[in-house]
Every structure is written in C-alpha cells, then in structure tokens.
Amino acid sequence: SLLQESPVRKSMPQIFPTSSSSSTSTPTSPLPSFITQSERISWDQIIRSTHDVEMTITPPTTDRNENNIKTGLHSFRASDRRLDDFANRIQQQAVQAVAASLNDSEIQRLKSYGRILVTGSAGYLGATLVMLLKSKRIDLQVVGIDVVRNGPSLNYKISNNNDNISVSTVDHCIDVADSKRLSDVASSCSAVFHTAALHAPNASKHHVAEFYSTNVVGTDNILQLGLPTVFTSTTSLTVTPGVKSRIANGEIAWLDGSPSDFIGAPTDAVNLPRNKYGRTKLLAEKLCARAFEEKGLDCAVLRASRFFPEDIMDGSSLSVPNIKANELLGRRVSLVDLLDAHVHALINIKAFHGVISTLVAPWPWSWRHPEGNAKAIAAFVAKERSDAAVLYAKHGWKMPEMISCVRDFRNAVELFNWKPRFTWDSLLEVLRQEQSTNDRFDKDHEDNHSNTKFPLTYKNILEGAY
Fold it and tell me: How confident is the model over 42-77, as pLDDT tens digits?
C-alpha cells in the first residue's frame, strides 16, 4: 500500500489527540510508508497545520454505520427544488453535448474497458459521468458508489416514450475508505473515475479526520485497485494564505499548474493550502504521483475549478449569471467542459505520465499577459474587448473591476487536446450574434444537439446554466 494502512472508517486513523489529551498536543498521523525520513517533516507539517487551524468541531465518533455518514452531503439540492431542477437541466445538456461530440473511435476506446467504476456517483460530477456512460450512444456498464443513495429529487431523469423516468446513479452505498467492500465491488471493473470527496461545503460539519479518511485513505484504496484512474482534484489547493494575501493587496495571482511532487517545497503555513479540503486533496495528488512513479499506474489528475451551479463567491451584489460570466476569465469551468475533459482523460490516459491538468476556461490572451495589478488587468480586458461592456449592460451585468486570480489551462490542451466550449470569448460571441439573430440563433443551437457549440446558447448564458 502507498499508505501504511488503509483502514475502514470505523478504525479511522487517529490524526488528533484523544479526548484525554491536551488540545495543543501534536497529533499522531499515519504517514505513507514510501516517504523518506527527510520527507517526513513535510507530510507531518501539512497534517499538523491542518490540526492547528481546524479544531472547530467535535471529533467524529467511532460508530461509522451507513445510516449516519455524511447525511447532509446533498442537502443543497434536496432542500431546493428549483436548484435541483436547474442542476439536472445542466447535467442533461452536458451529457447530450458530450455524447454527441464523441466519435466512433473514442466510444470504442471507452467500451474497451468493459465496466467502469465511478466513485461519488450521487454527486454533481459523478452522477453526470454515470449518466453519460449509460447514455444510449455510449451504453457502457457502470458501477456507481457513494456514501448516500440518491433521494427522489437527486435521481436523474431520462426520457422514454415521452415519459420522464427517474433513475438512480448509485448502485452500492459504499465508503471509499472501506478497502474491503471497495475491492469487492470493483472486482469486475477495468477503470475508475474517482470523484468522491469531502469538500468545502462539508467543512463545518465534518472533522478533519473524516476529510483525511475520505480524501487521502479513500484515494489510496482506489489506487490499490491497480486500475487506470482519472482522479478529480481541486484548484482550491493552490489558494494558500500567501496567495490570499497577494490578492488582498490588489495583486493578480497567476496560478500555474504546479508539479505533483511538492516534497521539498516550503512547509510553512503560508505556502500550504488554506484548509483541510485543500491539504487532504494535495496529499491525495501526491499518492497519485507516486502510484505512477513507483508502480507505473495509469493515472490522470484533473484539478477542477469552480463548476457547481450554486458555487459562487459570497457577498457579491452581482447576479449569478453575471458572476459566472466574469469567472470564465480564468477561474471557472462549465460542467459540459469538465465532463468532456474527464472522458478524454481516460481515453488518452497513457499520455499523462503523472502530469497534473487544471480544468478552467482559458485566459483569452497569452499566459501572464499583460503585466500589472488586478485593476490594471481588468482595464486591459475592457479595452481589448471594447464591446463587452455594452453587451453586458444590455442584461444589467457589470464587467469585473478587478481580476485577481487566473489559472493555467495549458496542460489539458497539450495532453488531450481539450477544447472548452464555454470561454469568455465564446460567451461574448453568442451575445453579439443574439443582437442580430436572437431567437433563430438560439433555436438552431438548441435543436441541433450534434452541434459542438451546444449547450452554449443565449438562454443558458443569461441563466448561468452551465
């Protein structure tokens, strides 16, 4: 194992002191067995730093039965019918677009895997992957696992003779930290999409030990299956306190795709991910890198930027569609483009060689151009796309006053020729064409699902439905 042990959740690694210990004690943590003594400091620092800043809730109990694990994971959609319908529409459109865009050779490559395991299959991305792989055009056998089963509002809808049928994307209610049960259900599979994770919305309700168990131990268990694996990571881990400080000072953070081997990097808290989500995903990335380096495992690491339908910055006075449009300038990715990237990553997995790819709508100009602070960059954007402000104003939108963070998309383009549909320039082009063709333009695109631009439509842009 890449880890010293891969326990089931009921024997969760004791990252923190026991209740009888001092709250300031140094936690004991199971560190990966492959690391050297000189590397131990880096790993220990990451976990200790997480411990220092995240002791905000009661540590988990030892009772880890399926009835009380992460029951609130899908509470946003379960409690909001409008959001649920909105998200389902985006998922359906993404599935239609990607399925239609795959050529026969690509579909045959996917089919060659026989049966594919999808972890986190009740989640937004995981469920959409299951929907795509089971779609009529691809028609693959899929095993979907999650710690929760789809409730009625979370099942996806398919059309059959004009009737909407509700279908679950979860075949087995299994925790990825349970290596025995995971191995049993994966025995018939030949590849994995590993999307399961505890992430930022779960931070207030779940102890860091649970984040470690799901995000690190769970990933180790997946890698031990020895199957080609597409691992969904996060751009959140690149936002360190140091980056936040630069942004607060009005600078722009050009976030390059960092190397997977972070051992040897500075270990002070300023240069580590700012929360338990980012730090545990960083450790999971390291496991993927070592699985490739030491075992030759085919593994693609894809860092997803913002893509959830409700995933926007708090405190903004702008509308959700306006915020999403602005974030296409280097810090958001549409679900359809995220889905497309995952499928093509598996199809082209031999090309990765341990390289990390960031999935984000591309910056329209050359990387790190132009120079200047966040306000100067925003002014440059407005000048270069001189009609953008007018197009925005027609819908009550506002251009960004500052552009403080841009992520590097280039690896994805180079590794598997990723071509995002939703970019800021493509959005502007739709808004321009709408001025002269309006409903005809939208109808042509919505009726022709084989068009590679679908679902990049005027209606979807105005609603932020991507």
Answer: 666 666 555 444 433 344 444 444 444 454 546 667
**Cβ-based neighbours of 297, under 8 Å, separated by 6 or more:** 223, 226, 228, 229, 291
Q: How far apart are CA 254 and CA 249, in angstroms?
A: 14
* DSSP calls for 196-243: ----GGGTTTS-HHHHHIIIIIHHHHHHHT-S-EEEEEEGGGG--HHH
179 and 9 in contact (C-beta within 8 Å)? Answer: no
CA-closest candidate to residue 193, choices 280, 251, 127: 127
Three-state DSSP state, 343: helix
Q: 208: number of CA atoms within 13 Å, CB side? A: 25
The structure's pTM equals 0.85
Q: Which helix (H) or strand (E) holds 289?
A: helix 276-295
Q: 107, 138 in Cβ contact below 8 A?
A: yes
Structure tokens at 9: 């959740």
